[in-house]
Amino acid sequence: MSDVWVERVTKSFGPHKAVADLSLAVAAGELVAVLGPSGCGKTTLLRLIAGFECPDSGTITIGGRRVAGQGEFVPPEHRRVGMVFQDYALFPHLTVVENVAFGLAGLGRAERRRRTRQALELVGLQHKASNYPDELSGGERQRVALARALAPEPAVVLLDEPFSNLDEALRADLRRDVELILREAEATAILVTHDQEEALSLADRVAVMRDGRIVQLGSPEEVYARPASRWAAEFVGDVNVISGVSRGECAETELGTFDLPSPTPAGPLQIAVRPEQLELVADSQGNAEIVDREFYGHDVLYRVRHETGRTLLVKTPSLELFEIGRRVHVRPARSAVAAPVD
Ligand code: ADP
Ligand code: MG
């Protein structure tokens, strides 16, 4: 059974549907990332699940109990939902331990202490228990916010862009920490982000959201390698959309032959080719020229102008570097698989 079940939920603000007939089922212990551009309705979806908004239609079930829809509306404090926000939302006048204990008011003293200690241990901040939020780093504050969300042992933890206020280096570390903490707590979690890398690297499944709807739901690998549409392909990462002709198991294009992930009816099609599915060979008679490159250390993203006039993105390991202006041959990388898109 699903721990969180959003079924055909719509929520409008005036004429605008922020969430449009959206369904999503999250299993117990699962970490689902909702990935979409700014304004697509991610926060509204979380607020509907948390009980800060009431759906116009549809139902929401948490831990087997209907909390919204069909005449039912359970207020946020009775939904067993923990929330973590981008701006931490800690109480500045309370210490770390008081912040974490805040949601445990209904429990006895011993139980409150046990859960607070356990939550602080889980996030590795026992030694900061008596500090105030302004004495902590951004990453520590976000770990306190997570401890506070987990302490009441919620049925689901909702995280709204929890890393966006942190600088890049800290973000990657905290991302991994938060994932491990959620897994150790065996929490069911929905994490909202507009960051593709974050969604792909953290989640068991990724829900790609656009204009209030989920346009694709799948494992990170599926969402990356088999985008449901051209839009999803472009949103989830760098991509080249190339015309070709299906031969069933493979597609022939002007760059060469790509394997298709599943048999596809013969005929013209467009395929989504990720930059690492192309490779470059130094060749003074080659079919392309390097026009730009971004060096990332482990790999390099090249922009190359193909003889057909189009610009392609090619990502290669940085073992061999090509100078701008260099003539190269672009071809499908060994066993490159590319999915058809509309
Ligand atoms: P996201 O979190 O993906 O950036 P939001 O859920 O915050 O998107 O917003 C989705 C859409 O709904 C936006 O167009 C936003 O302006 C609108 N919206 C959200 N909350 C309200 C509100 N309380 N009143 C009016 N419009 C809102
Ligand atoms: Mg938002």
Automatic annotation (TrEMBL):
InterPro entries: AAA+_ATPase, ABC_SmlMolc_Importer, ABC_transporter-like_ATP-bd, ABC_transporter-like_CS, Mo/tungstate-bd_C_term_dom, P-loop_NTPase, Transp-assoc_OB_typ2. One of its GO terms (molecular function) is ABC-type quaternary ammonium compound transporting activity. Residues 4-236 form the ABC transporter domain. It holds the Pfam family TOBE_2. SUPFAM superfamilies: MOP-like, P-loop containing nucleoside triphosphate hydrolases. The keyword Transport applies. Its EC number is 7.6.2.9. GO terms for cellular component: ATP-binding cassette (ABC) transporter complex. Keywords: ATP-binding, Nucleotide-binding, Transport. This is ABC-type quaternary amine transporter. The lineage of its organism: Bacteria, Bacillati, Actinomycetota, Thermoleophilia, Thermoleophilales.
